[in-house]
Amino acid sequence: MFDAGMSMARINLSHGTLKSNLKLINRFKMAKRLRPHKTCGLMLEARGREIRLSQVNDPSGELKIRSGTVVNLNCLNYLGVSDAKTFYCNCDIVQRYLKPNDVVYIDDGKVVGIVLEISNEGCMMEIKVGGNVRTNCQIRFIGGKHDKLNLINPKDMTDMAAISKEMQIDYLVLPIATCGEDIKQLREKLGEGGKSIKLLAKIDSISGVENYESILNEADGTIFQRNEL
Predict the structure, then answer these.
(1) What is the pTM of this model?
(2) What is the pLDDT of residues 119-140, one digit of tens each?
(3) Which of 48, 82, 102, 104 reaches 20 to 30 Å from 6, CA-CA?
(4) What are the structural domains, with CATH classification, of the chain?
(5) Spatial distance between the Cα atoms of 205 and 146, rounded to a whole number of angstroms
(6) Distance between CA 197 and CA 96 in Å, rounded?
(7) SS (H, E, C) 86-119
């Protein structure tokens, strides 16, 4: 890929583990050393406000969910194995902001649910559009629910600290950026040691589109992801 003209290597922290990502980065570093005449940067994409499904209980890594099925979305036990009756996700506070009739998009809308009722552990939802969902796929809610979630996942900071010891991080992508204040907060979290990292905002929500100018004023660049808008 270096020899074919790759100019940026992107690692999404939502996929893989710190150990596997460090292994990829070390391979990237070795390839770069062998090509001192080539220029190629390292881009990390943070987990940010993303909500992800846990591992599913099918060996294929996918579950077939039928329309009309009632599914329990459990937000308190990400280590649980998801099946056709219960989905486990990695956000333990989103249920505070849900209400009946909210729309839930799973795996970029391959499966769509409607919230029926809220509980302390999550919600019950009816699947309106059935389909296949896979391990670690995204779960999205309408109505600016993600705006209220923590800007950065604690694992993001741990992973970035470990990776920065191995190699300089050139760019950091913040998913579900909703306003310019998000970028300011991220710069503060990175501190003095991360001041050389350029920040890119991923515009993948309606809030991000509405506040695009304020985001652009604070970020070093933006990325649109149309399939999630």
Answers:
(1) 0.86
(2) 999 999 999 999 999 999 999 9
(3) 48
(4) 62-146 (2.40.33.10)
(5) 9
(6) 34
(7) EEEECCCCHHHHCCCCCEEEECCCCEEEEEEEEC
